[in-house]
Amino acid sequence: MTLTLTSPLDMHLHLRDGEMLQTVAPLTAQHFSGAIIMPNLLPPIVTKEALLAYRERILSTLPDTNISSFTPLMTLFFRPDYSREFLEEIHPDLAAIKLYPAGITTNSEGGLSGFDVEELSPVLTAMGDLGIPLCIHGETNGFVMDREAEFVPVYEKLAAAFPDLKIIMEHITTAASVAALDRFDNLYATITLHHLLITLDDVAGGMLQPHLFCKPIAKRYEDREALLQVALNAHPKVMFGSDSAPHPQDAKECPGCAAGVFTAPIALQALAALFDKYDKLDNLQAFVNTNACCIYGITPPRTTVTLKKQPFTVPVKYGEVVPMFAGQEIGWSITTKF
Amino acid sequence: MTLTLTSPLDMHLHLRDGEMLQTVAPLTAQHFSGAIIMPNLLPPIVTKEALLAYRERILSTLPDTNISSFTPLMTLFFRPDYSREFLEEIHPDLAAIKLYPAGITTNSEGGLSGFDVEELSPVLTAMGDLGIPLCIHGETNGFVMDREAEFVPVYEKLAAAFPDLKIIMEHITTAASVAALDRFDNLYATITLHHLLITLDDVAGGMLQPHLFCKPIAKRYEDREALLQVALNAHPKVMFGSDSAPHPQDAKECPGCAAGVFTAPIALQALAALFDKYDKLDNLQAFVNTNACCIYGITPPRTTVTLKKQPFTVPVKYGEVVPMFAGQEIGWSITTKF
Questions:
Q1: Does the CB of A210 have a partner CB in chain B at under 8 Å?
Q2: Which chain B residues contact residue A258 at CB under 8 A?
Q3: What does the pLDDT profile of chain B (338 residues) look like in tens digits?
């Protein structure tokens, strides 16, 4: 059995910089046609120069064959004081702006502390007018299992106040976020591979598994079920975004383990296995491409990825990074990307 | 400021065996007058010979000065088929019997799978008649955050069916278990140091902290608050039980990290700091000794431990084991044990 995907996209990706970028960017470009590149570097990407330079650094890691078949969809780190003029100027090079509440995840220290509609009105109105989506890591500083659900009212407040703004609820993990999707026309979501597969039981219910530790943390069975329902059934407002986050092995297997699951090179295979398991392979194209193209209004390079129902043994490491399913077998493998 | 504790007891302790036993047993004997020694070795302690031999191995690790000032209070691993004759014979050497639901924690694979009152009646009736307390690790196989609360009905069923049996709810972590304490005369509880101090946020709310990963996992703020209330206010049915569980550093800082926090050598100092913080130092004696002596009907060796409000820097390791607060300062230190 084979499956052909057209121009698969990863709508939430961390590539980091330097040596790590060299390791991971080619792995994504090998399978995907484009990816939303998160801007939480140190310092974060907040200028056109930094954004263009980062795009160049990403492209410079790719083999010639992938440069025309992979588009890094660049983002800025949200600042409430971006002017309309600045946004107009950077718009052609910009896919979205990513908003982090302060201190919520890796390199988010410079994030936003309040969500005052009046204060945010100039920048969010301009983004809505220009059609620049706002991607949000939606968590409060509350108890780890409640943070995302507590943030839903903020999503709703912003969605109501800025109806022309497309708001992407990034890497949603709860039934509460799924329910919010259908209450506002302008709320959308990305969902990761790992949140479709695991719950907190997989992270901390048996032995502790640092390589499955991520933010937002994996939640309850009923939350995973709600995510699965919208992903498997091609809900038009959800997109695949891996949130693949590479950390070196020694930053994961230690006290103070960094948050993030590395899935980029195994994501399409694992998604095929998952959608196949539920007899929903026909809906995978919507999840990994069509929905995103509609929501973002983008036309990524036309590529074709062929997957085969044939076991693939995941490497134990990619460089210094331990992937999800390290050393294990996935039932589907990738044969080609053209 | 100083504080004198008489014969402090640790009513839930893991000493393991072999080299690890050599490392950790003397640390407990240095501070405590007695400790309930958990029987989940491989194989578990289920015979009088094994129990006496383990006691000998424990005592053989102690310096001469501690042999008369520290009593290992020995336990058996619960089996539903222990006969009344066997229990009568072993009773003088036995402090309690520990029941593990199957597969719930370290070396609990041989544990109990059902809680059928009729089936358990012979052994639990005999234990009640003989005054042998039943210590239970009360968790179901459910979702990690719900396991303990889901087990409360089992505690209550057993408490109602065997009113003469003293049932100790071990290392309770939830407000639900605290509430059950007052519903049955024969329900008691141990509480660890770490569950008085941390929530799931400390384990997985920021970076992941494998050295704070334990079973039952730390819960919510309202759960910690309920535990604090009964501990600080000298509720007569709660006892200190550290559940101190030594694992070598490399078994904690790895994929598949073992469950357990190592607190034995720093527990009294940290308890003094905690009770001092809440201005409840007068109640610490009840928590670490008086309640346990009443509940178990024991008279441990008379010792005196003097603590001083003077910073103590916790070693980064004891042997290969990383303790709680490794390298950090605790506001109280131990000056002497006589």
A1: yes
A2: 207-208
A3: 999 999 999 999 999 999 999 999 999 999 999 999 999 999 999 999 999 999 999 999 999 988 899 999 999 999 999 999 999 999 999 999 999 998 777 777 777 777 899 999 999 999 999 999 999 999 999 999 999 999 999 999 999 999 999 999 999 999 999 999 999 999 999 999 999 999 999 999 999 999 999 999 999 999 999 999 999 999 999 999 999 999 999 999 999 999 999 999 999 999 999 999 999 999 999 999 999 999 999 999 999 999 999 999 999 999 999 999 999 999 999 998 77
**Largest distance between two CA atoms of chain A:** 54
CATH 3.40.50.300 fits B9-299, yes or no: no
Residues of chain A with C-beta less than 8 angstroms from the C-beta of B220? 143, 145
Query: In Å, how far is B332's CA from the nearest CA of chain A?
Result: 25
- Taking the C-alpha atoms of residue B27 and residue B7, their distance in angstroms, rounded to an integer, is 15
CB B17 within 8 A of CB B325: no
Whether B145 and A199 lie within 8 Å, measured CB to CB: no
Query: Inter-chain contact B204–A204, Cβ cutoff 8 Å?
Result: yes
B210 CB burial (10 A radius; 0-12, 13-18, 19+): buried
Strands of the sheet containing B333-337, edge to edge, are B2-6, B304-308, B333-337
Q: Do A210 and B144 touch (CB under 8 A)?
A: no
What's the complex ipTM? 0.94
Name the catalytic one among B164, B243, B250, B276.
B243
Which two structure tokens, joined as six digits, stand for A219?
A: 């939640």
Interface list for B 273-332 with A (CB within 8 A) = 322
Is A223 one of the catalytic residues?
no
Q: What angle do CA A194, A199, A205 make, to 5 degrees?
A: 125
Contact B163, B5 (CB under 8 A): no
Nearest chain B Cα distance for residue A106, angstroms: 10
Question: Hey, what are A150's tokens?
Answer: 């507590």
Q: Is A251 in the B-facing interface, judged by CB distances under 8 Å?
A: no
CATH superfamily of A9-298: Metal-dependent hydrolases (3.20.20.140)
B97 contacts B76 by C-beta, under 8 angstroms: yes
To the nearest whole angstrom, how far is the Cα of A338 from the nearest Cα of chain B? Answer: 36
Instruction: Tell if the CB–CB gap between B201 and A257 is shorter than 8 Å.
Output: no
Whole-number Å distance between alpha carbons of B170 and B188: 8
* Total-model pTM: 0.96
Taking CB atoms and an 8 Å limit, are B209 and A254 in contact across chains?
no
Report the C-alpha gap between B310 and B332 in whole angstroms.
Answer: 5
- The nearest CA of chain A is from the CA of B85 a distance in Å of 37
Asked if B204 contacts A203 with a C-beta cutoff of 8 angstroms, the reply is: yes
